[in-house]
Amino acid sequence: PAWLRRLCGQLLSERLMRPSGVQAVVRGIMEGTGAGGAGAEAAAVDWRKCDTVAKILASCPQQCLSLEDYYRLVCPQILDLLHIQDKLTARQFQRVATTTLLTMAKEHPQLAEKHLLQPLLAPLQRCSE
């Protein structure tokens, strides 16, 4: 029903914009993926889940006041997904992070540059100066 969809969307949005919310949502959705069979079918399911999670993260929720605020709150958390130490989850989290980054860069290039690409490339830029 529509009311349930709205309520779930609102709860998901609230969680994403909290500290460590992105990681909690990704963990919740991806839990159990990739740990079992390593066949082609399991890998395809894993990729589809990663793409779906990336689409969720790249979409600004209706409850957010502005797209800029959403990017400011969520993008640092997306970059943190690249630094997960656990090898089993790191691969999935890196897929989600890179797919989200690409999606955001296509949809809102200026905001993605400011909140994702500049922080990501800052160490390289410092070394080249």
From TrEMBL:
InterPro entries xref list: HEAT_TANGO6, TANGO6/Rtp1
Biological process, per Gene Ontology: protein secretion
Domain TANGO6 HEAT repeat: 16-129
Name the UniProt record assigns to this protein: TNG6 protein
Taxonomic placement: Eukaryota, Metazoa, Chordata, Craniata, Vertebrata
Pfam families: ARM_TANGO6
Domain of life, per lineage: Eukaryota
